[in-house]
Specification:
Rossmann fold; alpha/beta
Length: 447
C-alpha cells in the first residue's frame, strides 16, 4: 500500500495540526492568565477562601471553554471533528460539575471560619444575597443536567428529551455571567483584567451565536431546502430526500452529517444528527434514519414540500482524512449510512473492503445499494450476521486480521453503536494499526 498524497488530504492534515495547536495554545495562554489574575488579586481572608477564589476562576474559564467546544467553529470541526469535540465537551462538563460544587463549598467554609459561625448558618446567610442565589440556582441546574447525562440515566431518556434538558445549560451561562459581574472581584483588579475577562466571554458567546444561529439562518435562507421524497427502506427505516437552491455551495462531503429540523411538521426543539446516506451531488441530499426517538419515528409522515432547516455540514469522518490508498469500511446497524456514502464517493478508489455487521440480512439496511456500489467499485463486501458471542466475534483481533489480512496497511472507517465501535478500535490498536489510520464516528452530540 502507498500513502495518499492528494492535495486535499495534505490540506486536511495541515488544518488538523493548526486546530490542535490553536486549541492547546488557547488553553495554555488562558490558564496562565487565570493563574496570574489569582496572584494579582492577593490572598483571601484565609486558606479556604483563597482556594474557593481560585476554583471560581477556573470554573468561569472552563464554562467559556464549554461554549467554544460546541460553537461549531469551522477550524475545530474540520481539523478535529465534532465527534471528538463532543467527547471533550462531555468530560469538561464533569470538570464543571466538580468545580461548581467545590468552589462554593470552599467559599462558604472560608466565611464560616472568618466569622466563627457554623457552616449551615453561613451558607443560608450567603444564599440570601441575590448574586449568590443566582450562583446556587446555576449549581442546581448543572447538577441536574450532569445527572441526566450519566450513561445509566441517559439510556432511559429519548434523545429529544435529553436534548431539551441540555438546553438548560444556556440558562446556567446567563446566571453564571451575572454572578461573576457581582462577585468576581479577581476580574476587576485593573482595566487589563476586565478587558481580558469580558473579551473572553465576548469571544465565546459571539462564536456560539455565530456558529449556532447566525450562520445556519443565513445558509437556510440561501438554500431554501424542502423535502422532495420520503422512501421507506424497511419497517422502521426511512430515507428522506432533500432538495434546495445551490446545494453545491454547502461543500458537503460523504461521511458528514447535518442537524435536521422540520419546523412545519415538528416542534422547533426537535433536532437530530443524521448522516448523509448518499454522497452529495450538489442537487440533493439524502438522510436515512431508524425510528428510535420521536423525531426519527415521524420522518415517514413528512409531507412532500415540507420546509427543512439543516445545520451543517459537520464532521471530519471523510476520505480527506485518510493516509493510505487502501480503505476498510466497517458498519454496524444504522451506522451503515455514512459508510454507504463513503463507498459511493469517487475518491475512494478500488482497493476497498466493507464489513457490515447486523443481526440478520433482514436487518441490513441499504444492503442492495451496498452490493451495487461494491460491484461498481470492485470492492469486497462481507455481511456479518448473528448474535455476538461465543465463536461469533468477527471483530476480535485475530478474526479481523483473518477477514482483512492487510488491515495495517489500510485506513479504517467505523460507524455503529458505541460497543461495536469501541471493540473495533480496540482490536485495531491491538493489531498495531497507526492511530492516524483509524477514523471512528459515534452516535452522540452535545446540545
Amino acid at each position: 500500500m502507498i500513502a495518499v498524497t492528494h492535495p486535499q488530504v495534505i490540506a486536511v492534515r495541515r488544518s488538523a495540526r493548526v486546530a490542535h495547536v490553536a486549541l492547546w495554545a488557547f488553553l495554555l495562554v488562558n490558564l496562565a492568565v487565570v493563574q496570574a489574575m489569582y496572584v494579582l488579586a492577593g490572598p483571601a481572608h484565609n486558606l479556604a477562601g483563597s482556594i474557593g477564589r481560585l476554583l471560581g476562576l477556573y470554573l468561569a474559564f472552563v464554562m467559556a471553554l464549554q461554549l467554544l467546544l460546541v460553537a461549531r467553529l469551522p477550524i475545530l470541526d474540520r481539523g478535529i471533528g465534532m465527534d471528538r469535540l463532543t467527547t471533550w465537551h462531555r468530560w469538561t462538563g464533569f470538570a464543571v460539575l466538580w468545580l461548581v460544587l467545590l468552589h462554593p463549598a470552599f467559599v462558604v467554609l472560608g466565611f464560616a471560619q472568618q466569622d466563627r459561625a457554623s457552616y449551615a448558618r453561613t451558607f443560608l446567610s450567603l444564599a440570601g444575597q441575590l448574586p449568590v442565589l443566582l450562583g446556587v440556582l446555576a449549581t442546581c441546574l448543572i447538577v441536574l443536567v450532569v445527572a441526566l447525562s450519566v450513561r445509566a440515566a441517559r439510556r432511559r431518556l429519548s434523545y429529544e428529551t435529553w436534548h431539551a434538558v441540555h438546553l438548560l445549560l444556556y440558562a446556567v451561562v446567563v446566571l453564571g455571567v451575572i454572578h461573576q459581574v457581582y462577585e468576581g472581584t479577581a476580574f476587576k483588579i485593573n482595566i487589563w483584567t476586565q478587558v481580558y475577562w469580558w473579551g473572553l466571554w465576548t469571544f465565546a458567546l459571539g462564536a456560539l451565536l455565530a456558529g449556532r444561529l447566525i450562520v445556519p439562518l443565513a445558509r437556510n435562507a440561501r438554500h431554501r431546502m424542502r423535502v422532495a421524497a420520503v422512501v421507506p427502506e424497511s419497517g422502521d427505516v426511512v430515507s428522506v430526500h432533500v432538495t434546495g437552491r445551490h446545494l453545491e455551495r454547502l461543500q458537503a462531503a460523504a461521511g458528514q452529517f447535518f442537524l435536521w429540523r422540520f419546523p412545519e411538521h415538528q416542534s422547533w426543539w426537535q433536532v437530530n444528527p443524521f448522516s448523509l446516506s448518499a454522497a452529495p451531488n450538489g442537487r440533493s441530499l439524502r438522510l436515512t434514519a431508524k425510528a428510535i426517538g420521536t423525531t426519527s419515528a415521524g420522518l415517514r409522515d413528512l409531507p412532500i414540500g415540507t420546509r427543512v432547516y439543516a445545520e451543517g455540514p459537520y464532521g471530519a469522518f471523510t476520505l480527506a482524512q485518510r493516509s493510505r490508498s487502501g480503505v476498510l469500511l466497517i458498519a454496524g446497524g444504522i451506522g451503515v449510512t455514512p459508510i454507504r456514502a463513503l463507498l459511493e464517493d469517487p475518491a475512494i478508489g478500488s482497493d476497498v473492503v466493507v464489513l457490515y455487521r447486523v443481526r440478520s440480512t433482514a436487518d441490513a439496511v441499504l444492503l442492495g445499494e451496498l452490493r451495487n456500489l461494491a460491484r461498481v467499485r470492485g470492492a469486497r463486501l462481507h455481511v456479518l450476521t448473528g448474535r455476538t458471542g461465543g465463536g461469533n466475534q468477527p471483530f476480535q483481533p485475530e478474526n479481523l486480521a483473518t477477514l482483512v489480512p492487510d488491515v495495517t496497511d489500510r485506513d479504517t472507517y467505523v460507524c455503529g453503536p458505541a460497543p461495536l465501535t469501541r471493540a473495533v478500535v480496540a482490536s485495531l490498536r491491538s493489531l498495531r494499526v497507526p492511530s492516524r489510520q483509524i477514523h471512528a464516528e459515534l452516535f452522540r452530540l452535545a446540545a
